[in-house]
């Protein structure tokens, strides 16, 4: 991937934001752009739910809507309590730091989690912004 391709991708995302597109459309475009630029089979953009207790998939590329709906309803990723420390995406989101694993099967609770369902073994999580939980 050339620098020009990266810059063109970023320009398209910037244009989508400035065109006042609906947030779900922009998040899907973010996921598709990241997937393309990084050469991944799929990508998901996760945001906290309204209560600030879980991360849910809000934008995606390479995943089916049925799969995303199932993960969001049956296995949302915790942002609070001890389980959040065991989930790589939650740790990345809460710390604001990159968290990559060469074998996600090493993560506590791998059996039955979303990566296991997707038959994923390697994984990377990046936090694109800092987040503060909602005031209670």
Structural topology:
Elements lengths: L2 H16 L4 H16 L4 E6 L5 E8 L3 H10 L2 E2 L2 H6 L1 H8 L3 E3 L12 H5 L4 E3 L11
Antiparallel strand pairs: 1-2, 2-3, 4-5
Helix pairs in contact: 1-2
Per DSSP, what share of the residues sits in E-state strands of 2 or more residues?
15-25%
CATH-derived architecture: 2-Layer Sandwich
CATH class: Alpha Beta
Question: Order of SSEs, N→C?
Answer: HHEEHEHHEHE
- Give average pLDDT, whole number: 79
Separation of the first and last Cα atoms: 45 Å
Oligomer: single chain
Kindly describe this structure:
The protein has 136 residues and is α+β, with helices and mostly antiparallel strands. It has one domain: GAF domain (Beta-Lactamase), CATH 3.30.450. 45% of the residues lie in helices and 16% in strands. It has helices at residues 3-18, 23-38, 65-74, 81-86, 88-95, 114-118; strands at 43-48, 54-61, 77-78, 99-101, 123-125. A three-stranded antiparallel beta sheet has the order 1-2-3. A two-stranded antiparallel ribbon has the order 4-5. Strand 1 and strand 2 (54-61) form a beta hairpin. Helix 1 (3-18) packs antiparallel against helix 2 (23-38). The radius of gyration is 15 Å and the shape is globular. The mean pLDDT is 79.
């Amino acid at each position: 991937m050339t620098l020009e391709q990266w810059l063109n991708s970023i320009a398209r995302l910037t244009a989508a934001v400035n065109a006042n597109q609906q947030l779900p459309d922009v998040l899907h475009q973010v996921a598709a752009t990241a997937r393309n630029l990084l050469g991944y089979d799929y990508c998901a953009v996760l945001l906290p739910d309204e209560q600030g207790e879980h991360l849910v998939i809000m934008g995606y590329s390479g995943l089916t809507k049925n799969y995303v709906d199932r993960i969001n309803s049956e296995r949302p990723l915790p942002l609070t309590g001890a389980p959040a420390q065991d989930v790589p995406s939650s740790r990345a989101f809460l710390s604001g730091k990159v968290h990559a694993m060469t074998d996600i099967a090493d993560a506590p609770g791998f059996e039955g989690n979303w990566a296991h369902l997707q038959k994923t073994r390697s994984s990377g999580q990046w936090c694109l912004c800092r987040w503060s939980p909602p005031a209670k």
